Amino acid sequence: EKYEKISNELVKAVGESRVRSIMADSQNQLWVCTYSGLFCQDAQGTIHFYNQENSQTTSDRFRCITELRDGSVAVGTADGVNLIRDEKLTGTLTSEEGLANTQILSIVEGKDGTIWAGSDGSGIYLISDGKLIGNYTDQDGLSSNVILRIVPYEKGYLIVTSNALCHMDLERNIKKLDKFPYF
Predict the structure, then answer these.
(1) Tell me: the pLDDT tens digits for 34-45?
(2) Three-state DSSP class for 44?
(3) In degrees, to the nearest 5, what angle opens at C-alpha 76 toward C-alphas 13 and 61?
């Protein structure tokens, strides 16, 4: 297979921005998280751009994104969580709403519709209906409060922290996976 560099309107729009995450959603839209804003190219090729200036997002430094069951997206930034639906910012969570560390490194939707946002020092935030409803930290069994990735699966969640792998079962009991080599 031969790979070639391409140039199109989205590539030109993103330019030299640092890309942190890319996601295709159920509506055939391509979302690109960058350190200069969030780009969304819809199925017709129109590019939508979100940042603090034009959309009042929490930050211009977008890091992670997930599509939610209702078709909206939850996006983690350097300063919190943004909720977007139908091309509009519908909600944000920052320190004002209780996030002690607003740098979001990973974001997923749980089996019950709760948003799980992994932070860079305050563990995992749980968000429901646009509000902070809980927080898991090292006091709850996480090996670190730096959450690099959260992966839901049928028996719970695998959680990649800064120093180990952890498992959370369906009853939300957390344990470090000691037998897994992690460097």
Answers:
(1) 999 999 999 999
(2) coil
(3) 45
The distance of Cα 98 from the centroid of its chain, to the nearest Å, equals 17
- Tally of helices (H runs) and strands (E runs) in the chain: 2, 16
Contact status, residue 132 vs residue 126, Cβ threshold 8 Å: yes
The tokens describing 104, both together, are 């979001």
Q: Would you call 56 exposed, middle or buried from its count of C-beta atoms within 10 A (0-12, 13-18, 19+)?
A: exposed
Q: Tell me: the pLDDT tens digits for 124-145?
A: 999 999 999 999 999 999 999 9
Task: List % helix, strand, coil for the chain (3-state, nearest 5).
Answer: 10, 50, 45
Residue 51 · residue 60 · CB < 8 Å: yes
pTM of the predicted model as reported, rounded to 2 decimal places = 0.92
Single-letter amino acid, residue 84:
I
